[in-house]
Write a structure and sequence with these properties.
This protein is mainly α. It has one domain. It is built from eleven helices and five strands, in the order αααααββααββαααβα. Strands 3-4-5 form a three-stranded mixed sheet. The protein has a two-stranded antiparallel ribbon with strand order 1-2.
């Protein structure tokens, strides 16, 4: 009887806001081993399953969720909503070719209208810089889009694994511990405060996943072309990005 009671008390903190198996299945079906998304095939196959999942995320979330559960749901929500937004505008060379992609409160999660930036902000307040290695904004320079849903029970291990995969992908970051050098994503420049706030630095964060002492850290240009399986966003240039970003701010 006591075991049943303890299970009943503990359960709400681990309850998911949505059926994660839906998102998990879609990722396995439409994301390849290089973390590219087959938007054309996904759109042709219909968005009903994804819309059903997002509708569940839009409802008020269970009370008493643990931080691990909330973190997992927010990461999944950000990535799923980004995919849905791209499909709504597909074909498109870059997310920046869409209207106000990050700042417009056009999405609904946990019973509230939010923007992608707001979801990211809610995650950043948790003080875990690993989330920057999990959020995927549909760009070629983004961290890998994981081919499974993040879950409360496994989110710590999943984040560690995804950050390691991100840092050891030579197309995204180049770490040379023997030379004490690193050329890393602009994400480490844009969100440097998040890495410093944990009591360390970008260098100590890098060393946590790829051991070494990094004395020289440079940042590589960010490729905002679409993370599509086709070549649609391959030629999207930095000039186009600056032009589209200016347009988006008007």
């Amino acid at each position: 009887m006591l075991r049943v009671l303890l299970l009943f008390v503990a359960l709400p903190g681990w309850m998911a806001a949505a059926d994660d198996s839906i998102w998990d299945s879609l990722l396995k079906q439409y994301v390849n081993s290089e973390s590219r998304v087959d938007y054309a095939k996904w759109k042709a196959g219909g968005t009903a399953p994804l819309d059903s999942y997002l509708q569940q995320l839009g409802q008020p979330w269970p009370k008493g969720m643990t931080q691990a559960a909330e973190k997992a749901e927010l990461i999944d929500a950000y990535n799923a909503l980004t995919v849905r937004w791209i499909m709504q505008n597909y074909p498109v060379e870059s997310i920046w070719r869409t209207n106000h992609p990050f700042t417009e409160a056009r999405h609904t999660i946990d019973g509230q209208k939010v923007s992608l930036d707001a979801i990211e902000g809610r995650l950043r307040k948790m003080g875990d810089p690993r989330i920057h290695g999990a959020l995927v904004c549909a760009a070629r320079s983004c961290p890998p889009l994981r081919r499974e849903a993040y879950t409360a029970e496994r989110v710590d291990a999943q984040l560690d694994d995804n950050v390691h995969a991100w840092l050891t992908n030579p197309n995204l970051n180049q770490l040379s511990p023997d030379r004490h050098e690193a050329s890393v994503s602009m994400i480490f420049k844009w969100y440097r405060g998040d890495f410093d706030a944990t009591g360390g630095s970008v260098a100590t964060f890098l060393a946590r996943f790829v051991p070494g002492e990094y004395k020289s850290i440079k940042h590589v240009p960010y490729h905002w072309g679409l993370n599509d399986t086709s070549d649609l966003g391959k030629k999207y240039s930095n000039f186009n990005f600056l032009k589209d970003k200016l347009k988006d701010s008007l």
